[in-house]
């Protein structure tokens, strides 16, 4: 037989089976055809209706509270003398801006008890959005020094 295969194990393979290659290419072609519609027009293809903004010039008001290691407290850069002044200013700002966010900037040496006390004052003034300011450059320097 000319062109037939011999049964001994030392013969070379003279042909390549291309059927698996063709199958893979057809599957990839189908995947690309289906996803091409999403790439061309993603919002219309998915049918998503995006919400409209109430006003584009909205500015977020921040109530800044700084606590120093010497025991001082500052609201928006102005020194406050007692806890009631902090609470009154927070209530006043919240009355003017219902979406008020408070940011506590405490020195690293301020005791945890004092920070929690001022958080409680803000909570009593019904300020619910409270965040803590951090210095990201310090953590990067400390990691580099380790």
In words, what does this structure look like?
The protein has 146 residues and is of the alpha/beta class. It folds into two domains: 18-47; 62-136, Nucleotidyltransferase, domain 5 (2-Layer Sandwich). Helix content is 44%, strand content 15%. It contains five helices and five strands, in the order H-H-E-E-E-H-E-H-E-H. The protein has helices at residues 19-40, 42-46, 83-96, 112-124, 136-145; strands spanning 62-67, 73-75, 78-80, 101-106, 129-132. It has a five-stranded mixed beta sheet with strand order 3-2-1-4-5, covered by helices on one side. Helix 3 crosses helix 4.
- Name the shape in a single word: elongated
CATH topology of the largest domain: Nucleotidyltransferase, domain 5
Mean pLDDT: 78
Radius of gyration: 33 Å
The percent range for strand residues is 15-25%
| Cross-sheet strand order for the largest sheet | 3-2-1-4-5
Outline the biggest β-sheet.
Answer: 5 strands, mixed
Helix content: 40-55%
Number of domains: 2
What separation lies between the terminal Cα atoms? 76 Å
Q: Give the count of helical stretches.
A: 5
**Unreliable runs, pLDDT <50, ≥5 residues?**
none
Question: What is the H/E string?
Answer: HHEEEHEHEH
Q: Which structural class do the helices and strands define?
A: alpha/beta
């Amino acid at each position: 037989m000319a062109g037939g295969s011999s049964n001994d194990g030392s013969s070379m393979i003279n042909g390549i089976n291309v059927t698996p290659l063709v199958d893979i290419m057809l599957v990839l072609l189908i995947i690309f055809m289906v996803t091409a519609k999403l790439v061309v027009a993603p919002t219309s293809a998915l049918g998503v209706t995006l919400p409209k903004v109430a006003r584009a010039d909205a500015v977020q008001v921040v109530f800044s509270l700084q606590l120093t290691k010497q025991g001082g407290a500052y609201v928006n850069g102005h020194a406050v003398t007692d806890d009631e002044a902090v609470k009154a200013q927070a209530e006043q700002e919240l009355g003017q801006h219902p979406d008020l966010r408070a940011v506590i900037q405490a020195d690293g040496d301020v005791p945890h008890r004092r920070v929690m006390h001022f958080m409680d004052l803000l909570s009593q003034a019904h300020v619910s959005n409270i965040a803590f300011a951090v210095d990201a450059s310090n953590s990067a320097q400390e990691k580099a020094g380790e």
